[in-house]
Amino acid sequence: MKYRALVAVAVAYVFIVCVTSTVSRVRAATLFTARNTGSCNLPFDIQCYLAGGTHPDPDVIRETDITEDTELAAIAQIQRNPPRDLYHAITLLGKAELYDRSFSVYKNVACATCHVAETGFTNPSSHLAPALIDFPGSVKITNVAGQHPNMRIGDRRPQTYGYAPFMQVLHYDSVQKDFYGGNFWDMRATGLRLGNPAAEQAEGPPTNPNEMGLSDTACVVYALAKSPYASFFARIWGAQSFAVHWPADVESVCAKPGPPPGNNPYPVHLSAIDRGTSNTTYDHFAEAIASYEASPDVSPFSSKYDAWIAGKVSLTASERRGYDLFNGKAKCDTCHSDGAGSGSAAGLRVGRSEVRIAGVLMAATTEPLFTDQTSSNLGLPKNYELPYLYEDVPDQFGFTANAAGPRYTDLGVGGFLNDPTENPNPAWALLAPQFVGKFQVPTLRNVDKRPRINFVKAYMHNGYLHSLEEVVHFYNTRDKFPHCPYGSPGEKISCWPAPEISLNEDQTVGNLGLSAGEEADLVAFLKTLTDGYAP
Question: Structure pTM?
Answer without folding.
Answer: 0.91
